[in-house]
Amino acid sequence: MRRNASTLSRLSSVLVAGAAAVVCAGAASADGIDNQSFNQVERGHYLAVAGDCAACHTLPGSGHDFSGGRPIETPFGNVIAPNITPDPTTGIGAWTDDEFVNALTKGRGRDGTRLYPAMPYTYYTRLTRDDALAIRAYLNTVPAVHHAVQADRLPFPFDIRAAMALWDMMFFKSGAFQPVAGKSAEWNRGAYLAQGPAHCGMCHTPKNFLGADKTGQALQGYALQGWFAPNITNDRRRGLGSWSVDDIVAYLKTGHNRTGAATGPMSETLNLSTSHMSDGDLKAIAAYLKDAPGQQESAPPAPDQKTMAAGKEIYVDECSGCHTRDGKGIAGIFPALSGSPAVQQTDPTSLLHVVLRGARSAGTATAPTAPAMPAFAWLLNDDQVAAVVTYIRNAWGNAAPPVSGDAVRKTRDDLVERSD
Question: Which of 13, 90, 312, 354 is the most buried (most CB within 10 A)?
Fold first, then answer.
């Protein structure tokens, strides 16, 4: 989920230079990749961007795209992303196409080793073989980097990869995406992208105690890496129900829309992935998400009125200058809090993160300003943060569970351990 901000510009030059190199190299490989097919390489590049491959496989500051070494945080410890450049000894240069496709879509390494689902093969399994091979064709064009990576760094007993055989048996269903009859071509394209290469549910779907998706709660939000990936179903209050298709496309393309702004890991996803996808594909994803049913929940408990009054005072003093007294913000600059699904999530982790540590919204080619929110951890104590956050979550028609000072204290302590 972490990105190197300079990676994308290098990807474009790599694509052009690498594609020229393989054209000069000559004949098609015996495994089915046509090394003379610019179209295949170009398609693979687009899919690698849609799949956000650089996010995990490029170590920030290394200067070497896809050479691995990036720690991927999981509830069980960190998994280190491997080198996927075409280096023959430390990368995937000596792999056959079948070995690559098996790793991508079946979670099996070159020697049959079970991969951990931090590598989203549970989603990539929906890729067609042609699309998987297109990604391989693109990766063949990036500079080979000799960089050995020790991926096994999980503590015992999670370091026993053989146990993944049982995990796969219980939770993994292999198979390419099958179009759904009765749905439009656009919907099916969006479903293929969201369920496959874009692997939206990897962050936005709740997980069980073994790290597998709770499929009955698909896309209803999940806490990870110090943030809460929000509900992206069509739920009216907590999801995308109040956003139009155009709102979703604008958000994914620019990082902003008329009410919202992307921060945290989502801003990284925008910078390296969705902002570079075609408008047609983003519209297809939006059509698919708008069809995802929300969760039926009872009304949250009403907040204490004394807490609301204290929170309102803090809000007027510290927040209303940007977000306005009525919580409507300023479109494209300061996100709205009134009616905001991000504010009304069942889990307030992201809101607490932003209030305590501050955040900068996404900056993209079409919306480069990237306004920032200052940190308030130095100014407000735990009870004050709890009061203002509870107020924001329940003012202007919003409704969400109150936040306690203890919850703020825990979040504050957790953030001390984080550098980003």
Answer: 354
Question: What pLDDT is attached to residue 302?
Answer: 87
Q: Are residues 41 and 144 in the same domain?
A: yes
| pTM for the full predicted model | 0.86
Which tops the pLDDT comparison, 184 or 224?
Answer: 184
Percent above pLDDT 70 for the chain: 90
Residue 26, by phi and psi: left (phi above 0), alpha (psi -120 to 50) or beta?
A: left
CA pair distance 80, 263, nearest whole angstrom:
24
Domain with 201 in it: what CATH number? 1.10.760
The tokens for 98 are 């079948």
**In angstroms, rounded to a whole number, what is the distance separating the alpha carbons of residues 116 and 56?**
14
| Count of structural domains, the chain | 3
Q: What is the DSSP letter of 334?
A: B
Task: Tell me the C-alpha distance between 288 and 281, whole Å.
Answer: 11
Torsion angle, alpha carbons of 128, 129, 130, 132, to 10: 90
Between CA 204 and CA 230 the distance in angstroms is 6
Looking at residue 352, which CATH number applies to its domain? 1.10.760.10
